[in-house]
Amino acid sequence: MTSVSAREAVLGRVREALRGTERTPPSAVPREYRTTRPAADLVALFCETVADYKATVDRVAAEAAVSKIAEVARAAGARRLLIPDGAPQAWSQVLGEDFELVDPEAGTAALEQVDAVITTAAVGIASTGTIVLDHGPGQGRRAATLVPDLHICVVAEPQVADDVPAAISRLDPTRPTTFISGPSATSDIELNRVEGVHGPRTLHVLVTPAV
């Protein structure tokens, strides 16, 4: 006579109870309640929520973006700029006349001498004021967007998504992503805010109809 352990007996009863049942895939989570927001203008909401995180936001015409970048850089006292590969060629052509452009592939030591990085973005999230980089063309590698003290990010209006699920649906899950909500900041136990600890101290966002 073969003895059956308590574990085998329990599992046998579970299998018997499940015999004949069919597995059904999990149903999709209903999100109909998130399809409409009070704000009719997502871009305006995005600008508002980005500013709530102590970032500076300007809406500019596409053709005025590069001149605004130069204005922001000068106001910050920046001289050495990093423009990632894949950014609009006009940025390098115009900014190279008045600023020193650093090799986008510069090593960490050279990055510490960069005053500002200018990038595009993958997605902007209106409800949270978050910018998402997937480090594709025009966005640079992660280190290049974390070391310089000033980050100027140009976001196209069609890139603005309603909320986080909508933004995630636009991203490639195989790519690295960086979520940015305002300039880098932290605080100690006494809630003393310190900026620029883990990334740029200043974030300036330019929103344009197209990049």
Describe this structure in words.
By secondary structure, this protein is of the alpha/beta class. It has one domain (42-184, 192-208): NagB/RpiA/CoA transferase-like (Rossmann fold). The protein contains seven helices and twelve strands. It has helices spanning 6-18, 42-52, 65-75, 89-95, 108-111, 142-146, 164-170; strands spanning 56-59, 80-82, 100-102, 116-119, 123-125, 130-133, 150-156, 160-161, 178-180, 185-187, 193-195, 202-208. Strands 1-12-7-4-2-3 form a six-stranded parallel sheet, with helices on both faces. Helix 3 crosses helix 4 (89-95). The longest helix has 13 residues, at 6-18. The radius of gyration is 24 Å and the shape is elongated. The termini are far apart. This is LUD domain-containing protein. InterPro entries: FTHF_cligase-like_sf (IPR024185), LUD_dom (IPR003741), NagB/RpiA_transferase-like (IPR037171). Residues 110-207 form the LUD domain. Pfam families: LUD_dom (PF02589).
Indicate the topology:
Elements: H1 6-18, H2 42-52, E1 56-59, H3 65-75, E2 80-82, H4 89-95, E3 100-102, H5 108-111, E4 116-119, E5 123-125, E6 130-133, H6 142-146, E7 150-156, E8 160-161, H7 164-170, E9 178-180, E10 185-187, E11 193-195, E12 202-208
Parallel strand pairs: 1-12, 2-3, 2-4, 4-7, 5-8, 7-12
Antiparallel strand pairs: 5-6, 6-9, 10-11
Helix pairs in contact: 3-4
